[in-house]
Amino acid sequence: MKNSPTHLKARTCQGFSLIELMVSLTIGLVVVIAALSAYMGAASATKMVNAQSVMNEDGQSALSILSQHIRMAGYTSNTAAVDTVRGCEGTFTNIKLGSVNMGGLSCTNGNTTNDSISVFYEADAFNTIATSTGKPTDCLGSSLKVDADGLYWAENRFFIDTMTGTTTKSLYCKGNAVANNGNTIDNNHQPLVENVEDLQFTYGSEKTVGDKTVAGYVKASDVTNWAKILTVRICVVVRSEQPVLTDAKSAYYKNCAGTTVTPGDLYLRRAYQTTVVLRSKLL
After folding, report:
1. What confidence score (pLDDT) does residue 209 get?
2. Which among 59, 110, 125, 219 could disulfide-bond with 272, CB atoms 3.0 to 4.6 Å apart, if both were Cys?
3. What is the pTM of this model?
4. C-beta neighbour count of 143 within 10 angstroms
């Protein structure tokens, strides 16, 4: 008979046909490709989120550090006025020299590189991180020298530099700590925040000293009297630590001037901004 048990057993031993096997392989391949695509998409999204999170932390850290010191500019427990800030369009040519005071910093203004700033104020155990012996410190946590009146003065210089042996740009600070012999340390500069590619300042100036009203914001080269500065606008551009984009066309961003920039690489960048009031000017 056609459908006898022997005949059915013979058919079941034949296995899959070539067409059935090819269809099965195709379906399996589609499933694998879909799973890989979903995994790669999720991994790429996670990588992007992590990069943005680190950038936000770096940007906020840079603004927080700069704001903390600039806000204190000009503070003194004495009644006499003191220097507040001194800025430069570009980096002061002698910014790393400890033998030069703030007034002696030289600057070639008008270039398009990163800005730099020097901040001066009376330091104490409350507006700085004190040492274990209670002495005030500079921006790097190194102890300051006391003057004849028993006061400590912090003069911190902030700028962008490249870390030794790398191409990574960072926010640096040069403090005015002293060595055991009492001399200011020339090489007392260290990176504070990595992957900070750009640093820009504009200064809110009053029309005449004592107005206590910002008449407008200018670049460092347009400041005629640093005693008129009431506020400082800060902008930093932070770059992701690793390339995270899949297309260089997606790497565009707006810089501190609000101009769209296309760097041509796969790094993510973002500008962070804030405005700081010099408390000593408005008290």
Report:
1. 84
2. 59
3. 0.82
4. 20
Q: Are 177 and 142 in contact (CB under 8 A)?
A: yes
Q: Do residues 217 and 236 lie in contact, with contact meaning Cβ atoms separated by under 8 Å?
A: no
In sequence order, the β-bridge partners of residue 116 are 88
**Local structure of residue 109 (DSSP, 8 states):** T
| Nearest-angstrom CA–CA distance, 63 and 273 | 7
| Residue 87: strand pairing partners | 117
Distances (CA, A) of 197 to 34, 110, 127, 162, 170: 39, 19, 28, 9, 7
108-157 pLDDT, tens per residue? Answer: 766 668 999 999 999 998 999 998 888 999 999 988 988 888 999 999 99
**Token couple for 171:** 């926010």
Helix (H) or strand (E) holding 279: helix 279-282
CA 205 to chain centre: 25
% the chain with pLDDT above 70:
87
In what order do the strands lie in the sheet containing 196-206? 214-218, 196-206, 229-239, 269-277
- The token duo for 188 is 């007392």
Tell me how far apart the alpha carbons of residues 48 and 34 are, in angstroms, rounded to a whole number. Answer: 21
Q: Which residue has the higher pLDDT, 23 or 159?
A: 159
- Kind of pairing between the strands at 229-239 and 196-206: antiparallel
